[in-house]
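The authors assume throughout that readers already know how a fold can be written as discrete tokens. In essence, backbone conformation is discretised, so a fold becomes a row of integers matching the chain in length. A single example would do more here than another paragraph of explanation. For illustration, here is how one protein appears when written out as sequence plus structure tokens:

…
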Amino acid sequence: MRRAARELALNLLFQADVARLTLDEAIAAARENAKVPTEALEMGIEYASGAWKAGRDSDALVNRLAPEWTVERQSSVDRNVLRLAIYELRSRPEAPAAVIINEAVDLAKTYGSEESGKFVNGVLSAAARMIRDGEGENT
């Protein structure tokens, strides 16, 4: 169920980032058309909303960790997978970082480029250490 929720959240973030829909418009469309269980739908909306609201902080952390690949240079898929995973790392301290990272890498490999998985893994591994050690809270 979390996998379906993450895929839905990524789709919502992508629409808000690239298709220039508001997140609320993307959510309304998902409520009408998404073919996922209600629990996955609600969890996906929660993840997307949280990741979208925390986007600036997440982007700042990514820019700090990968200055040669700022969020402006990243593909929309990579950028939004990172936003989603960083949100989860910050908001779900009970969830093992390795699980969040593995799921993000899988999403990046599925929807991103050939190099997306490696890039996302490297950035999130560093981000997880900072977040879970309290160093990346507001950067």
In short: The chain has a mean pLDDT of 93. The chain has one domain: 2-132. Residues 116-132 form the longest helix (17 residues). The two ends are 30 Å apart (CA to CA).
